[in-house]
Specification:
The complex is a heterotrimer of chains A (309), B (249) and C (549).
Chain A: E1 3-6, H1 17-26, E2 32-38, H2 42-49, E3 56-61, H3 70-81, E4 86-90, H4 93-106, E5 110-114, E6 116-119, E7 122-127, E8 132-138, E9 143-147, E10 163-166, E11 176-183, E12 196-200, H5 210-220, E13 223-226, H6 228-232, E14 253-257, H7 263-269, E15 274-279, E16 292-295, H8 298-308
Parallel strand pairs in A: 1-2, 1-4, 2-3, 3-10, 4-9, 5-9, 12-13, 12-14, 14-15, 15-16
Antiparallel strand pairs in A: 6-7, 7-8
Chain B: E1 2-6, E2 9-11, E3 33-35, H1 37-51, E4 57-64, H2 69-78, E5 82-87, H3 94-108, E6 112-116, H4 127-135, E7 139-149, E8 152-159, E9 162-169, E10 172-176, H5 188-194, E11 199-202, H6 204-207, E12 215-221, E13 230-232, H7 235-245
Parallel strand pairs in B: 1-4, 1-6, 4-5, 5-11, 6-10, 7-10
Antiparallel strand pairs in B: 2-3, 7-8, 8-9
Helix pairs in contact in B: 2-5, 3-4
Chain C: E1 3-12, H1 16-31, E2 38-42, E3 56-57, H2 60-65, E4 78-79, E5 82-88, E6 94-96, E7 112-113, H3 116-129, E8 133-136, E9 140-145, E10 151-156, E11 159-161, E12 167-172, E13 175-184, H4 191-199, E14 211-220, E15 230-236, E16 245-251, E17 256-264, H5 274-281, H6 285-291, E18 295-305, H7 308-311, E19 316-317, E20 320-322, H8 324-327, H9 338-358, H10 362-374, H11 377-384, H12 388-410, H13 451-456, E21 470-472, H14 477-486, H15 490-493, E22 499-502, E23 510-513, H16 523-527, E24 533-535
Parallel strand pairs in C: 1-2, 1-13, 2-8, 5-15, 13-20
Antiparallel strand pairs in C: 3-7, 4-7, 5-6, 9-10, 10-13, 11-12, 14-17, 14-18, 15-16, 16-17, 19-20, 21-24, 22-23
Helix pairs in contact in C: 1-3, 1-9, 9-10
The chains are: A alpha/beta (309), B alpha/beta (249), C alpha+beta (549).
Protein name (chain B): Electron transfer flavoprotein subunit beta
InterPro entries (chain B): ET-Flavoprotein_bsu_CS, ETF_a/b_N, ETF_b, ETF_beta_N, Rossmann-like_a/b/a_fold
Function (chain B): The electron transfer flavoprotein serves as a specific electron acceptor for other dehydrogenases. It transfers the electrons to the main respiratory chain via ETF-ubiquinone oxidoreductase (ETF dehydrogenase).
Chain lengths: 309, 249, 549
């Protein structure tokens, strides 16, 4: 039986997380189909067809799918979902909104946020905010799951030529309506979802010195965070705090500047893919978790780093 | 309008979880339990709708062993009018919870069900969506604002990269996100009054729901501890490593 | 304007003393078929959240309160099987004292190793079942007096106040809890108990109270090394001769041991760090043999009042009583305070209940209390051990220990001698210049750990945006006096890393108070040499969340 992946997109561009989800699908074995449901989403379908490893792209192009309303989309997917062994979607807000609804229509469980494939019906997923990892086996005929993109390598975006098939079934529950959307335009991404985070600790010495980090962050398109010590010292506001009682972040790159690495902080960022620590104290605990450590005075190293990028 | 609000008993968010030595689950013996924070927000949302004169009655429902009556009492102290505990040995998995809730909805006929978007133990983020599917009601997940407009519910949702606003026909399902409100504290007189509010216990059998297992928990492990990497000698070496080795910039 | 609620009895603190009093009151009310409204307020997020004790538990008071405690499921699961006492000579060596040489008060046959937190959780359930209103998450922040100066209850703290004093979205004013009698059972150095003692001069005929700081950890250990029921006590290394204290290691149930160190807070050397003393202690073979290969699962700290009989203040005042460690009923010879605290609660309940039913005036009730207390085994026990602490303080561990052996074993505490120790603990601190700094070694992350990693395991937290609950009477004093003279000892005596002096490198030192880390141990309120730090209650529900401690 084949695997169906539900594409994440905005009717123009296929989102990268879809490629990671396809990466997870590839570990399951079996033919992989990709569903693109939207309105005037031909461009997305074309991008989907170019992904090697996708054997068929299903396109449901209709006004009722324009905003990915779960009521309509869930009916579409559940309508033919039983024919698949697995239904997967990226664990973004769209996938999390949709997949449990699909699962309930199929009378099966839904596995959230899988980070590992143990076997075609057994998966690893974080629980308790990542403080424990559960291994869960599905007992259902169809596995419905959302996939944490950062846990799987993406498939390449180019090189394939899948068949594209149109679906003409349209489902309109008629109970919900899209009113509007307001997407963040800020150049600096949100701390919780940023791909790169530059975080400062007490080593910065003052709130004014955080400007140094902001310059670096702007160059990298990164968000700026802070350790609890820096927040406690009054350098920056609470909402920048990473770690205990603050935000849990897991960016691809986390740059810790002048942060000693108290456990409260480590708990909030240890799932980052790559951690860089810049600290003048070679004994700082942060170096025990950093992939790349630089023992240096941050007031020299940070401007130098910014120039070198 | 009658509102149903769900509350789950979970480990207190301040408590660090610890995996049992036999890896069967996390150790919950004698640790502080509390109402799931997203459920607190759900209760607060319901209470505010009642204070605004929109809601007429708030029913708080929890699924689990009798200990979860404590969280129902908390909801009653915060402003819910009555409680229903659906008595099960352990909290069942989400699909079963959704079926139990659907049965309660059939009996209670609320116009709105507000749930937390997820519980901080299993982190599933699915019961509300499943309940919506079973009832064939519209859903607005991850709500950060709610308003009733001309008989429809307008909900602002937190989605990746921004906010989305939906308009739902009633009856409907809403799941709460962090920014929807800041829950109030329960006052002492209200805690005392809550002890006298009605709390009904129902069983899955009475509700006609079978406790079927759809998944099996094989193992719970502590996350792998992160190993330290290397020290680089200079900024240029760092940039080089990030570009060519880690490929993150 | 605060709202008020009326009760017959309000009890502050859901520990052994407070809950025993509450349970006994309701038992008496049921026996005599008299309606009674009793409420207990507890600043911890739940009953037991802030309780920290060894603990080897003597069930005498529990037997009196609930003779059927076994059937009621009281969590006394591990009877003591063996007592061992060691004198640590240095980092490697130890002498195990022969059984015959131990003071009788250190024999634990018949006692149980318990988690006091779990025991009070159980007591809390019994209290609720008996009809007590138990309110965890509410801190009694203020004593209320009537127009005659009699205590008429307490007020809980306001909730939802921002750090700058403004009211946040969820602001809820405190609540007045009025009562005919108010019982204060806040534990050692209760912040309201301290105010009451001052206002009513309760300690005018007593020696100054003496304190110790207890630091405790809970470990999962290798099952092969686990000997349930084994109780180990000891003294000596790493504490210097002139520093009193001792350690414990108890083998509890479920392959767990608790280990801890009590450091007397009358120490002189401001460089001393009780936390670091405990961390290095765990490397001693006597402890390491059990901890090695194990995993630390919890951490906590709490001051204990160990002045005993001589430091015991008057417990009664108009309108109420100080109970348990809030007064200082710990028996230091036994190193146990739970059974005595419970007994003080039982006695309080009995006399207060009599006063309520007979409608006694304070002038008639206070002598009744005094007589009941003096006729009790609690009084006798404290009297007999009155010299134990002062002997150690005044004669040193060796001569004092010998005195205690003879006094406790030969004369059973009945010698007509009373030793006194009249210098307050904080006054014993000497200037930093008189000592060299102590070089504590870096924690190895296996047996020993740093403060942040330890505090992390206490599950402590406080709402961030609230006024600091560690109040400096004189904000400039720490840098003006404590820093130059004592190298600001708060940095070292605080077991939670709350106090830090930053910016010394740049020549601009400033005191940073990380109030969020606070474990509510009260050491700063006790040991600050200028008595400049006042511990007040933070927003209810804040503080540690100890499981199984």
């Amino acid at each position: 039986m084949a695997i169906l992946v539900i594409a994440e997109h905005d009717n123009r561009t296929l989102k990268g997380a879809t490629l990671n989800t396809l990466g997870a699908a590839a570990l399951l074995g079996g033919e992989v189909h990709l569903l693109v449901a939207g309105r005037s989403c031909g461009a997305v379908a074309a991008q989907a067809a170019a992904i090697p490893g996708v054997s068929k792209v299903l396109v449901a192009d209709a006004a009722v799918y324009e905003h990915q309303l779960a009521e309509n989309l869930a009916r579409l997917v559940a309508g033919f979902g039983k024919a698949y062994s697995h239904l997967l979607a990226p664990a973004g807000s769209a996938g999390k909104n949709l997949m449990p609804r699909v699962a309930a229509l199929l009378d099966v469980a839904q596995l959230s946020d899988i980070v590992g494939v143990v076997s075609p019906n057994t998966f690893r997923r974080p629980i308790y905010a990542g403080n424990a990892i559960a291994t869960v086996q599905s007992l259902d005929p169809v596995v419905v799951a959302t996939v944490r993109a950062s846990a799987f390598d993406p498939l390449p975006a180019e090189g394939g030529s899948a068949a594209v098939e149109s679906l003409d079934a349209t489902h309109d529950a008629g109970t919900s309506r899209f009113v509007g959307e307001e997407l963040a335009k800020s150049d600096r991404p949100e701390l919780g979802s940023a791909r790169i985070v530059v975080s400062g600790g007490r080593g910065l010495g003052s709130g004014e010195n955080f400007a140094l980090l902001e310059t670096l962050a702007d160059k990298l398109g990164a968000a700026v965070g802070a350790s609890r010590a820096a927040v406690d010292a009054g350098f920056v506001a609470n909402d920048m705090q990473v770690g205990q009682t603050g935000k849990i972040v897991a960016p691809e790159l986390y740059i810790a500047v002048g942060i000693s690495g108290a456990i409260q902080h480590l708990a909030g960022m240890k799932d980052s893919k790559v951690i860089v620590a810049i600290n003048k104290d070679p004994e700082a605990p942060i170096f025990q978790v950093a992939d790349y450590g630089l023992v240096a005075d941050l007031f020299e190293a940070v401007p130098e780093l910014e120039k070198a990028l | 309008m009658k509102i149903l609000v769900t509350v789950k008993r979970v480990i207190d968010y301040n408590v660090k979880v610890r995996v049992k030595a036999d890896q069967s689950d996390v150790d919950l013996a004698n640790v502080k339990m509390a109402m799931n924070p997203f459920c607190e927000i759900a209760v607060e949302a319901a209470v505010r709708l009642k204070e605004a004169g929109i809601a007429t009655e708030i029913v708080a429902v929890s699924v689990g062993p009798s200990a979860c009556q404590e969280q129902i009492r908390t909801a009653l102290a915060l402003g819910a009018d009555r409680g229903i505990q659906i008595d099960t040995a352990e909290p069942p998995e989400s699909l079963v919870v959704a079926k139990l809730l659907a049965a309660v909805v059939a009996a209670e006929q609320p116009e709105l069900v507000i749930l937390g978007k997820q519980s901080i133990d299993a982190d599933n983020n699915q019961t509300g969506q499943m309940l919506a599917a079973l009832l064939d009601w519209p859903q607005a997940t991850f709500a950060s604002a709610l308003a009733l407009q001309e008989g429809r519910l307008e909900v602002t949702r937190e989605i990746d990269g921004g906010l989305q606003t939906l308009s739902l026909a009633l009856p409907a399902i809403v799941t709460t996100d962090l920014r929807l409100n800041e829950p109030r504290y329960a006052s002492l007189p209200n805690i005392m009054k809550a002890k006298k509010k009605p709390l009904e216990v129902r069983t899955p059998a009475e509700l006609g729901v079978a406790l079927k297992a759809h998944t099996r928990l094989l193992k719970v492990e502590a996350p792998a501890e992160r190993q330290g990497g290397i020290k680089v000698g200079s900024v240029s070496e760092l940039v080089e490593k990030l570009k060519s080795e880690a490929k993150v910039i | 304007m605060r709202e008020a609620m009326e009760f017959d009895v309000v009890i502050v603190g859901a520990g052994p003393a407070g809950l025993s009093a509450a349970c006994r009151l309701m038992q008496l009310a049921a026996e005599q078929n008299r309606p009674l409204e009793v409420c207990v307020v507890e600043k911890g997020s739940e009953v037991g959240a802030h309780i920290l004790s060894g603990a080897v538990f003597e069930s005498r008071a529990l037997d009196e309160l609930f003779p059927d405690w076994k059937a009621l499921g009281a969590p006394l699961h591990t009877p003591v099987t063996t007592d061992e006492v060691y004198l640590l000579r240095n980092a490697e060596q130890a002498v195990k004292l022969p059984d015959a040489l131990l003071p009788k008060s250190l024999h634990n046959a018949g006692n149980h190793i318990v988690s006091l937190g779990n025991l009070v959780r159980w007591l809390g359930e019994q209290a609720e079942a008996l009809g007590v209103q138990v309110f965890p998450g509410f801190a009694a922040a203020e004593v209320l007096y009537d127009e005659n100066g009699r205590v008429r209850g307490v007020a809980t703290g306001d909730m939802g106040v921002a750090a700058d004093g403004s009211h946040k979205d969820g602001f809820m004013p405190g609540m007045e809890l009025h009562a005919r009698y108010t019982l204060f059972a806040e534990g050692c150095r209760g912040h309201l108990g301290k105010q009451l003692a001052e206002r009513f001069e309760l300690a005018r005929n007593a020696d100054p109270q003496h304190y110790g700081l207890g630091i405790k950890e809970l470990w999962d250990i290798d099952p092969a090394r686990h000997r349930p029921g084994l109780v180990i006590h000891g003294a000596g290394w790493p504490l210097e001769r002139d520093t009193g204290g001792g350690f414990f290691l108890y083998h509890a149930e479920n392959h767990q041991v608790v280990a801890g160190l009590i450091v007397d807070l009358n120490y002189a050397n401001p460089w001393l760090s009780p936390f670091d003393e405990f961390q290095r202690l765990k490397h001693h073979p006597v402890l390491k043999q059990y901890l090695e290969g194990g995993k630390r699962v919890s951490y906590g700290a709490r001051a204990i009042a160990k002045g005993g009989f001589n430091a015991l203040p008057e417990m009664a005042f108009p309108g109420g009583l100080l109970l348990g460690c809030d007064a200082g009923t710990l028996n230091v010879a036994k190193i146990k305070g739970s059974h005595t605290a419970m007994k003080s609660g039982l006695l309080a309940a009995e006399t207060v209940f009599a006063a309520l039913t007979e409608e006694l005036a304070d002038s008639a009730w206070a002598p009744r209390w005094k007589a009941a207390f003096e006729a009790s085994w609690l009084h006798e026990e404290l009297y007999r051990s009155r010299n134990f602490g002062p002997a150690l303080h005044r004669l040193g561990p060796l001569a004092g220990g010998a005195f205690n052996f003879v006094e406790q074993n030969v004369f059973a505490g009945r010698l007509p001698i009373t030793l006194h120790d009249r210098e307050a603990d904080h006054a014993r601190l000497r200037p930093a210049a008189e000592f060299s700094p102590i070089a504590y070694r870096k924690p190895d992350g296996v047996l020993s750990f740093d403060k942040p990693a330890s505090v992390f395991l206490s599950n402590t937290n406080h709402e961030e945006n609230q006024p600091c609950h560690l109040v400096l009477k004189d904000r400039a004093l720490p840098l003006r006096e404590n820093l130059p003279r004592y190298a600001e000892p708060a940095q070292r005596y605080c077991p939670a890393g709350v106090y830090e002096v930053l910016g010394t490198e740049q020549g601009e030192p400033r005191l940073q108070i990380n109030a969020q880390n606070c474990l509510h141990c009260k050491t700063c309120d006790i040991k600050d040499p200028s008595q400049n730090i006042v511990w007040v209650t933070p927003e209810g529900g804040g503080g540690p969340n100890y499981p199984n401690m």
